């Protein structure tokens, strides 16, 4: 069973990388699609195989396939954000709605009310932060795709996940920013914060109980 899960994750990760490789040319026609099989494709295979293996160990079997889909979509968004600095609506919005709809079934750990609150607070928190940046610094603090991704994370994982997700996102975002600035990949001081948000969500999926226990001790 575990070997079939690893193999499935390996294939899914590779296909996701190939899809992202082709999709980025739709978002930005100046980018070359490149080779279908690349080092990044192999990395994607390994990363997603590791993710689904960790899911099998740490997540309730009822939620396994839904969280596998969640992780796959997050990985696709990470690849696209890295390549194009965008989080496409035609991925973030379906991710949000699937999270809300799953909350009406046994395949989610949330009730519909919790999912709605998670999506609402996720979106409004980053929207408010961005409005603060616009008001104080006269420029956008982040892209609107980040709002929608954080809303989707809230819909899948609930309000209680947002603090932990943001904490990880800040750390990963700092590392990503350093890489982009030192490698001269940044444009107008921007960097892909969606990678950090997705990383935080994955950490919560795999270690949510530990994170919640830690936060309860702090409160």
UniProtKB/TrEMBL annotation:
Protein name according to UniProt:
Prepilin peptidase
| Prepilin type IV endopeptidase peptidase domain boundaries | 69-177
Q: Name one Pfam family in it.
A: Peptidase_A24
Instruction: Provide the family line.
Output: Belongs to the peptidase A24 family.
User: Would you kindly state one Gene Ontology biological process term found in this protein's UniProt entry?
Assistant: signal peptide processing
Entry keyword set: Membrane, Transmembrane, Transmembrane helix
Q: Which domain of life is it from?
A: Bacteria
Transmembrane regions: 36-57, 64-82, 115-137, 149-181, 193-218
Which is an annotated GO molecular function term of this record?
aspartic-type endopeptidase activity
Gene Ontology cellular component list: plasma membrane
Write down the species.
Photobacterium aquimaris
Is Membrane one of the keywords?
A: yes
